[in-house]
UniProtKB/TrEMBL annotation:
This is GDP-mannose 4,6-dehydratase. The lineage of its organism: Bacteria, Pseudomonadati, Pseudomonadota, Gammaproteobacteria, Pseudomonadales. GO terms for molecular function: GDP-mannose 4,6-dehydratase activity; NADP+ binding. It comes from Pseudomonas hamedanensis. Catalyzes the conversion of GDP-D-mannose to GDP-4-dehydro-6-deoxy-D-mannose. Its EC number is 4.2.1.47.
Length: 323
């Protein structure tokens, strides 16, 4: 029988890659989409799947619309990717972030509990929950110490998922995903900000790139690899939580070097440090330990950072040239 899946946040980077993965596996894919005046489906078009999805109007802040989406889609699997996911914006919109990234998870879990308890649920947790790290390398047992409204809201979403799993015996799993990027990443995120700027500078359309803490370290992977881990979690007999990461940490500075080198430029000539881009509470380093995901799910990242940044640079060079 054809499986049915509901993806919240389907118009985002992860949603587009996951929709393609599930469609290729023969799923009927439903997407919860909030009404927007701007074009929000461009990533799905880029992946060639826009016409293959059943769209359902809804908003994670509105429990009734979430319930209707669950009832209409009758899902075997629900992937909750919806979030206000830009850390910097969470300082400007802490209440909205808390509602969407925290309370919205409860709306979805409660809808599943009441109307579709057989459904398997995936929660998109984040390495930002570790924040002020309590261990050199973070795994599923590392204590959390979030350093932003985004991290705090996501921590609520993570723990409410654990609570519903343990209290109501739901098949509910969380993927604690470290930074994952792609050509579909939003321009406000540092990786795309760098690759877009490098492409523009190379083509004479921009002069400099302003960044904040370029010595911050992150564990970066490819979103196309990470959505496979999401799917694998919901194929397990038992629900659980998994760190999804590469196990390698790199500075923003090094990431800039890779991007600018790809187009024959020296990043030092163009990158300027702007204190306005520093966070109120900095997260200096994140480094994931994906051993459990490798052992239980059989998952490993396929794409290293050099390959990922070069992929993004090539896409941005082509896009900027057409502007």
């Amino acid at each position: 029988m054809t499986k049915s899946a509901l993806i919240t946040g389907i118009t985002g980077q992860d949603g587009a890659y996951l929709a393609k993965l599930l469609l290729d596996k023969g799923y009927k894919v439903h997407g919860l989409v909030a009404r927007r005046s701007s074009d929000s489906r461009w990533r799905l078009r880029e992946m060639g799947v826009e016409a293959d999805i059943v769209y359902l109007d809804g908003d994670m802040a509105d429990a009734c619309s979430v319930q209707r989406a669950v009832i209409k889609s009758a899902p075997d699997e629900v992937y909750n990717l919806a979030a206000q996911s830009f850390v910097a914006a969470s300082w400007d919109q802490p209440v909205t972030t808390g509602i969407v990234d925290g309370l919205g998870v409860t709306h979805l879990l409660e809808a599943i509990r009441q109307f579709s308890p057989h459904t398997r649920f995936y929660q998109a947790s984040t390495s930002e929950m570790f924040g002020l790290i309590q261990a050199e390398q973070q795994d599923e047992n590392t204590p959390f110490y979030p350093r932003s409204p985004y991290g705090v809201a996501k921590l609520y979403g993570h723990w409410i998922t654990v609570n519903y799993r343990e209290s109501f015996n739901l098949h509910a799993s969380s993927g604690i995903l470290f930074n994952h990027e792609s050509p579909l990443r939003g321009i406000e995120f540092v990786t795309r900000k760098v690759t877009d700027a490098a492409a523009r500078i190379k083509q004479g359309k921009q002069q400099t790139l302003a960044l904040g803490n370029i010595d911050a370290k992150r564990d970066w992977g490819f979103a196309g690899d990470y959505v496979e881990a999401m799917w694998l979690m919901l194929q397990q007999d038992k629900p659980d939580d998994y760190v999804v990461a590469t196990g390698v940490t790199t500075t923003v500075r090094e990431m800039c070097r890779i991007a600018f080198d790809h187009v024959g430029l020296n990043y030092r000539d163009y990158v300027k440090i702007d204190p306005a881009f520093f966070r109120p509470a900095e997260v200096e380093v994140l480094l994931g330990n994906p051993a459990k995901a490798q052992r239980v799910l059989g998952w490993k990242p396929k794409t290293d950072l050099d390959t990922l940044i070069r992929m993004m640079m090539d896409a941005d060079m082509q896009r900027v040239a057409k502007e």
